[in-house]
Amino acid sequence: MATVHNSNKNLTRDLSISLFIYTLPVLAIYLYFKLSNGLVSESHIALPAFLEFAKPAFENIRTWGLTVFMIVLGIIEFTAGLYDDEWTGEERKIDIVSFLAPKLILPAVIAFFSLKVLPVLIPNLENSLSWVPFWGGFFLIAVADDLTQYWYHRLHHQIPFLWRFHRTHHSAPYMGMAMLSRQNFIYTIFFSQIYLTATLTFLGLGLPALFVLVIKSLITLGAHSSIAWDKPFYKYKVLHPIEWVLERLISTPATHHAHHADTSGDGVGHFKGNFGNMFFIWDVIFGTGLITRQFPKSYGIKSYKQEEWYAQFLWPIFKSKKEGSALAEGVLSVPLKQNPVVENQPVFETAQS
């Protein structure tokens, strides 16, 4: 009972801190206009002069550039042999389906939400925030989007029922571009912050949203890649101060690979934390982060049964036929007692009715 009480107490504390963080961009924008006597000197509709040159690049990256970048980086990873011949069978199918399906489904869902739902939910508010300066909109969206995703991600690890909607992402026994989009479709469709960002765009913060999306996507790509771009920062002492700040601010390969480790018993893997997507600072603030500057020896889920691609992508509509699978018919997702020495993830994987 004491453990449950402490857990609830920590959750209440973290949520309270989150509400305060959500207000910071709003307070900053308010103070900006208060100190400038309420004058609107710039708007996100007109980018700051020093960013105008980057607008075409960001627009192209948003439409097709990121997809091309992912494919090229994936080819480099395969050529370098970084997948150790593990991209076979069901792994290949689920990765390809998870990569293609959102690109066909999500644009339609977001368009419907933006064009049909929002005008009904918040009528007459379109472009009502267009007066907000670019930096304010960027700060507002970056915090609102990524902190919301931190909680969405964290709760899918801490609530047993939700875990099976996120389990697909952690089932891959490798890291890299191939598994980046690997998610159950329900986890993707209800990805809460995409609707938050769509709402802020509807309210008039389209350009800041574009810049946040591209920067966040590049950081996420880098964190999932099997190319450990952060290793030179650990190797050369002159770069250590930069890395100290960097690894606490954003997700890096070392911190995010640790989140995908198949065990937390080696002091490197940290399945129960490192939830940050773009910003790692959320994990620092809420005490869920672990920084070791080391990489796990293996990834995935130890009880993984290589379930059928349709079960991983479409559970609970389709169930797995693999015996002992957490996605099989009749399996309950309830917490099991943790092993105090070696905590194989996840602890609620194998309970059955």
Number of strands: 0
pLDDT averaged residue by residue: 85
In helices, the fraction of residues equals 55-70%
Reported for the largest beta sheet, the result is:
none
Instruction: Enumerate the spans where pLDDT stays under 50 for 5 or more consecutive residues.
Output: 1-5, 333-348
InterPro entries: Fatty_acid_hydroxylase (IPR006694), Sterol_desaturase/TMEM195 (IPR051689)
Subcellular location: Endomembrane system
Membrane topology: Multi-pass membrane protein
Protein name: Fatty acid hydroxylase domain-containing protein
In short:
The protein is mostly helical. The chain is 56% helix and 0% strand.
SSE layout:
Elements: H1 2-35, H2 55-79, H3 89-121, H4 134-158, H5 160-171, H6 185-189, H7 192-202, H8 206-224, H9 231-235, H10 240-249, H11 253-259, H12 281-286, H13 309-314
Main location: membrane
Membrane topology: Multi-pass membrane protein
Protein name: Fatty acid hydroxylase domain-containing protein
Please provide a written account of the structure.
With 353 residues, the chain is mainly alpha-helical. It has one domain (2-249). Helices cover 56% and strands 0% of the residues. The protein has 13 helices and no strands. The chain has helices at 2-35, 55-79, 89-121, 134-158, 160-171, 185-189, 192-202, 206-224, 231-235, 240-249, 253-259, 281-286, 309-314. α1 (2-35) packs antiparallel against α4, α2 packs parallel to α8 (206-224) and α4 crosses α5. The longest helix is centred in the N-terminal third of the chain and has 34 residues, at 2-35. The protein is globular. Mean pLDDT is 85; it is low at 1-5 and 333-348. The chain crosses the membrane at residues 15-33, 61-83, 104-122, 134-152, 185-203. It comes from Flavobacterium limi. It is found in: Endomembrane system. Residues 139-288 form the Fatty acid hydroxylase domain. Pfam families: FA_hydroxylase.
